[in-house]
């Protein structure tokens, strides 16, 4: 049984799992997402349990569609939630802002990624969107708060008819802590959509009136909710004139730091961060001499404090991003160093010793690598052999973004989901050269189709290689419109990518099996030579998916071995399979790592064979 469904008093849950548990305890009826780490587990858990509980759940085509779908359910009276990563919120923003004006009672969960652990584009702070859209925002510090704040968010949306944002960060998402369970509330199976003038009225006057109504609503939330909420709390020590204000997981970093340094300091913990809790902040800073603001990532709370302090305590010395980093994750040691400077105290000996110790260590660098047998590795090899390495190569978002790294070096720019096609169209028009575009199957459905249509409409000259590995692999094997299965595990129509691109009017389409190397090289050469928009659908199932399928039916994964050494095996360095290694001048295949794709045997038939 999934831990979020256990009939116990307490469970250790990830922050993402706790979000789901909180939603279940208020009768969640409808949930959507597009998979994106660090938010992925919210959708993954719901996909496992939704059908059993009578909840509708889907992996939508992209985040904007996910938001709109959940909003439709919320307008129909169902408790609804959408979960996104920070960059996905950007995709949904076009619809989110008007939904705030339209009084949509929707819970929006967003996971920011300080340190860019799984997000190469940005480590943005989604709290700016709170200010941009006047969107009530909650910031959990741990899993228990993630559950309770989710329940509270549903109450706010219902009471004030406004979307509520729950802002997580990576450590809250992926750290387990103890969660006290309440009762799971039965779901409402069916909603009703009622026509209202507020939703249907169009034009500038209704929009201005909605804006006015929204601002009034935020003021009402300030007066009614912020005065009584326990999500913003002062932990007081009247003997000290130095205080700390912290939000989210930074609260625990601050607590750990003051325990380590051995001084009790007053702390204002902020969990309901927009509208900003001015009254409790005024009370907290009124008699302080110094205050340290601890938050991930940007100086948003710090800015609010500086504005409030001008009138309440003008002499207050405010420290924040001048002593703490604005990039990467916050850490207890960063807070310790900052406090040691503010308090003029020496750092604890164990921290000093640890810093010296770790400075002496030489940690071996290892580049991220595609899995053994990955179809993308075969595709990169095929394209490089067919076209050489001096073409303009465009990358996109997915496992295959590793193609930008050695030994492949086949992505000259990577920007955002689907951006590879639009950027390459501009490059082609500007330079007269034909870029080679790599885009994944899920990414193609997410944002590649409009850009493809644009290349056709505006007579581009590009080669688009769609890497169809039959799943959304990078975020945990979630289904997409090409897999033939929904997020609830139900069979559905599987869209064939080659048919979709043909319907868009491209000039040529080739389908290749990436595990057939020689035939694929010929087809890629042929596709590139054609003028206009050529598309190659490179089919090859994610090898991890294949290995798991074989294991379930009791079939042994084949293994390969190098039985004859020769100088030409040096080319294997460019192939980059982690199962192929070199020891004392000789190449060998580690059978513990080999996943039996057989591509290496096709490249070196005289040197490599199937192991008996």
Can you describe this structure?
This protein is α/β, with parallel strands linked by helices and 612 residues long. It folds into four domains: 3-192 and 203-224, Rossmann fold, CATH 3.40.50; 233-360, Rossmann fold, CATH 3.40.50.920; 375-550, Rossmann fold; 556-610. 40% of the residues lie in helices and 17% in strands. It contains 22 helices and 23 strands. A seven-stranded mixed beta sheet has the order 3-2-4-5-7-6-12. Strand 16, helix 17 (441-457) and strand 17 (462-468) form a beta-alpha-beta unit. The longest helix has 21 residues, at 204-224. 48% of the residues are buried. The mean pLDDT is 94.
Notable features of this structure?
612 residues, Rossmann fold, 4 domains, five-stranded mixed beta sheet, 22 helices
Strand order of the largest sheet: 3-2-4-5-7-6-12
Separate helix tally: 22
Oligomer: single chain
Question: Could you name the CATH topology of the largest domain?
Answer: Rossmann fold
What is the count of distinct domains? 4
Major sheet description: 7 strands, mixed
Relevant CATH superfamily of the largest domain:
Thiamin diphosphate (ThDP)-binding fold, Pyr/PP domains
Please mark out the parts with pLDDT under 50 across 5 or more consecutive residues, or reply none.
none
- How far the N terminus sits from the C terminus, by CA atoms, comes to 40 Å
Class from helix and strand fractions = alpha/beta
- Tell me how many strands there are: 23
- Helicity level: 40-55%
CATH architecture of the largest domain: 3-Layer(aba) Sandwich
Look at the structure and give the CATH class of the largest domain.
Alpha Beta
User: What is the average of the pLDDT values?
Assistant: 94
What percent of residues are in strands? 15-25%
């Amino acid at each position: 049984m999934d831990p979020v469904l256990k009939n116990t008093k307490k469970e250790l849950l990830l922050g993402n799992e706790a979000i789901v548990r909180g939603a279940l305890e208020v009768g969640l009826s409808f949930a959507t997402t597009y998979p994106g780490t660090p938010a992925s587990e919210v959708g993954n858990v719901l996909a496992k349990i939704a059908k059993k509980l009578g909840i509708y759940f889907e992996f939508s085509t992209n985040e904007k569609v996910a938001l709109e779908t959940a909003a439709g359910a919320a307008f129909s009276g169902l408790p609804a939630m959408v979960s996104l990563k920070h960059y996905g919120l950007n995709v949904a923003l076009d619809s989110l802002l008007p939904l705030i004006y339209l009084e949509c009672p929707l819970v929006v969960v967003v996971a920011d990624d300080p340190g860019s652990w799984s997000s190469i584009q940005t480590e943005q702070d989604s709290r700016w969107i709170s200010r941009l859209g006047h969107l009530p925002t909650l910031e959990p510090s741990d899993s228990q708060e993630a559950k309770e704040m989710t329940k509270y968010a549903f109450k706010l949306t219902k009471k004030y008819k406004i979307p509520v944002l729950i802002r997580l960060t990576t450590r809250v998402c992926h750290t387990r802590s103890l969660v006290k369970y309440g009762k799971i509330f039965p779901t409402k199976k069916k909603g009703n959509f009622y026509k209202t003038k507020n939703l249907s009225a169009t034009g500038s006057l209704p929009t201005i009136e909605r804006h006015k109504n929204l601002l009034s609503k935020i003021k009402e939330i300030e007066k009614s909710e912020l005065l009584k909420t326990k999500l913003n709390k002062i932990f007081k020590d009247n003997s000290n004139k130095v205080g700390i204000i912290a939000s989210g997981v930074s609260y625990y970093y601050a607590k750990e730091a003051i325990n380590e340094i051995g001084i009790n300091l007053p702390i204002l913990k902020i969990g309901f961060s927009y509208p900003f809790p001015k009254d409790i902040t005024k009370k907290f800073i009124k008699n302080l001499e110094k205050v340290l603001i601890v938050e991930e990532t940007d100086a948003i709370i710090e800015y609010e404090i500086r504005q409030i302090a001008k009138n309440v305590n003008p002499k207050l010395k405010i420290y924040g991003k001048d002593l703490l980093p604005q990039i990467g994750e916050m850490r207890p040691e960063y807070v310790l160093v900052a406090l040691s400077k503010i308090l003029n105290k020496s750092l604890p000996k164990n921290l000093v010793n640890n810093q010296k110790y770790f400075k002496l260590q030489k940690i071996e660098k290892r580049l991220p690598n595609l899995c053994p047998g990955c179809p993308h590795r075969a595709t990169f090899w095929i394209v490089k052999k067919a076209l050489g390495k001096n073409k303009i190569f465009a990358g996109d978002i997915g496992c295959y973004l590793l193609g930008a790294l050695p030994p492949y070096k086949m992505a000259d720019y990577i920007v955002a989901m689907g951006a590879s096609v639009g950027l390459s169209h501009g490059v082609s028009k500007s330079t007269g050269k034909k870029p080679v575009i790599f885009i994944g199957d899920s990414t193609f459905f997410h944002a590649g189709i409009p850009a493809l249509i644009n290349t056709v409409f505006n007579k581009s000259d590009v080669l688009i290689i769609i890497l169809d590995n039959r799943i959304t692999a990078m975020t945990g094997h979630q289904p997409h419109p090409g897999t033939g299965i929904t997020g609830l595990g139900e069979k559905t129509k599987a869209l064939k990518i080659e048919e979709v691109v043909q319907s868009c009017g491209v000039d040529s389409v080739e389908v290749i099996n990436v595990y057939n190397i020689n035939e694929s090289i010929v087809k890629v050469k042929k596709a590139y030579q054609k003028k206009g928009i050529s598309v190659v659908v490179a089919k090859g199932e994610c090898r991890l998916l294949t290995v798991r399928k074989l294991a379930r039916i009791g079939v042994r994964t084949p293994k390969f071995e190098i039985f004859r050494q020769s100088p030409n095996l040096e080319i294997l360095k460019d192939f980059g399979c982690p199962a192929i290694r070199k020891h004392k001048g000789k190449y060998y295949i580690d059978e513990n790592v080999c996943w039996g794709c057989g591509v290496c045997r096709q490249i070196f038939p005289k040197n490599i064979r199937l192991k008996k």
